[in-house]
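quick one: iron/sulfur cluster bound model?
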Amino acid sequence: MSIALNLDHASNAARPTTPRRSSLVGLSKPQLREAMAGIGLDEREAKMRASQLWNWIYVNGVTDFERMSNIQKGFRQTLSDNFLLDRPEIVSEQISIDGTRKWLFRYRDPKNPNLPPVEIETVYIPESDRGTLCVSSQVGCTLTCSFCHTGTQTLVRNLTAGEILGQILMARERLGDFPGGVRPDDGGLVPGPRGSGGSEGDSRAITNVVMMGMGEPLYNYDNVKQALLIASDEAGISLSKRRITLSTSGVVPFIEPAGREIGTMLAISLHAVRDDLRDMLVPINKKYPLNDLLEACRTYPGLSNARRITFEYVMLKDINDSDADARELVRLLSGIPAKINLIPFNPWPGTNYDCSSSARIERFADIVNNAGYASPVRTPRGRDIFAACGQLKSETERLTKRDRDALTSA
Ligand code: SF4
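yep, here:
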């Protein structure tokens, strides 16, 4: 049984027709300074105000300029006349029996509020020693991985850096992660002062972020990069880069830049050890086959035993789960500091795949383990609310064709 809270206080609101003030959420520090200069501040003052705003937005989670107590009243008004501190609307919040939370968030197009809004899903997975937020990078996905529910939803648009960060900020608010926030009363499932997201002595509900929600992050590279650099900035949300994982299905040309410019942990959605099978399960493999992908992994900047790549491997009955597959996996990964996450397949309506049996998964894990690779079997989380891996899909595709054309051509 799961609990669904309907928080849709905005769905019936009239669609805005006037252009909106621009949002400060998701701007880099130089962009924030530029925005301040744009309303007439000199360089010194723009720098000072940008740093105050950064602190209010990312450390204190403030969404109202009026609460910025170290900024004079008159200037608070100027800020609110010119800017917004946008967060997504919450359409729904579902809580699984295992404590997993799934939010359906709604965004309006930042440049054109007359376009229909889009919706995406974000998932929070609490564990005893950590709390992981699974963040989306796109509305839908261009890739059509055949085991993935999101892959059946065509790409509507990329999320902006502010919209990616908005998921983290909104989840932090709902989980009481900002100063003075109240932790939800859920029988201790949401980590209290247990996990550490960054610095020593720091405690928060969200300790880890994985870019594994809807979409292929490396097909929205610039926005994902900007959002993750902001999320890991020590003067703000301050999540350690070792606690942020960027997951890709294998967009080879962006793997090296991601390591060099973003520097987070890397996960690869591998799922098959032969090109013919991977072409079918993860069709981007036709463009960037296994050899190219694994070469990019071998040369991933900063790769070491302390900074291993995670290979995600979904266990599909009679498709990719034989002893021979496990042995080939070990052979392919030879020389790459790696961890292999075995993911029992999470069914969704209309899929043709079945999950491998527990005995088969155990046998597969043994072979990989005996070769010296950690190969934890991921416990499915939030299945009852369709929040588990590969199950995310929003309702944006229910838009009329005219709305969808407007969004994709915007
Ligand atoms: S697995 Fe990732 S890349 Fe593949 S279809 Fe699903 S969301 Fe897109």
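The domain at 89-409 is CATH 3.20.20.70 (TIM Barrel).
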